[in-house]
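Appendix B. Chain record.
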Amino acid sequence: MESKFYSKLFTYIETNNSFSSLDFSDIGFEKHSEALLSLKSLKSFGHIFLISEVKRKFWCLTEKGEEFLRNSKQKNVQNILEVDKLFNSLVKVKEENVKSVDENFLKECEENNYIKKGEIDSLEVSKGNSFADNLVLADDLTADMIGSDSWNNLVLSSYDYNKMGLMEKFGGLHVIYNFGTAIREALFELGFKEVHVSNYVEKYSKEDADKALEETDNVYSVHLNENTNEEEACSKTYYLRSSLFNRLLSEISILKSVPSKLFTIGKVFQNREFDSLDIPEYHSLEMMISDVDLDLSNVLGICAALFSRLNIGFTDFKQAYFPYTSPTVGIYLYNEILDAWISVGKGGIVRPEVMKKLGYNDNMFILRLGFSLERVLLNKNETDDMSNLL
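Structure tokens predicted for this chain:
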């Protein structure tokens, strides 16, 4: 309770010797309920105040009075100053402020069934045995009071062991966790099944270290760039994407002839320099769909369906390269802050030699899509730096 309230309370009780909580407007309160809460706390000061509970009669509106107020508000909404005497009086009754209303007019309103008398619990406050004019009340002992020795003249309220403490503000769920949950729900709606691959981490050389495919006897093979040291490339990156891909492939190979939709979300660790669009650790979403007669249009359709459920727009697709898929499209989202198209992932059709090794028929296809959750969030949260999401 503030010191201003105490000083106003002392001044009022010195003048009137006692008062009721129904006089709440005189001691600085807007509502009777607020006055009750504050005046009850005065009990903690011992015998300085005498506080007793009293049931009092008060005026309240009847159903007829409530109906009159509702209709009058609708009629006078354009010119509220022209409301009649009855409307003004009923408003004051509703606000528990009837001191300014003529007593005879209140009785007239009661006779016309606009108001009635009810009972209310109130508090009567008067001077106690320990009351003195020079007392200073306080709820808390501060460092300033101790330093200035003003605590000698203070009357501190007794400790309330039943009083609840301040509510602590607990931490919320991380934005990436919430976004991952939203993606899971969207994919479940699209008929996908989640595969957990958190225990599968492999070393994998940089994607940039791979060069174009070489075709020999209708079999594709991927070679590392001749100028790249494979051992050095592997030591720089712990890449989860290949393990996600392999794990999903193994799950799909078990189903083979059965159409399936699988996805997984896992962390990617990259030991390299980072900037606003690249960080050493991020989350990757991998999706695979196996069915007959699939083509690249299905990849675009799945992206559109997923992004529409996540309320993400401004999507673009461009030709791209990925070692395991051909053809491959790059997926881009427009970032308004950067005023640029940001690459968020890639998708395509798994290569024929992989399908052949898994024992699929020629009319069966596997689609693969991969996204960086942080890059998609970069656009959704309208920020220009991925580190702001950590």
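Further analysis of this model is presented in Appendix C.
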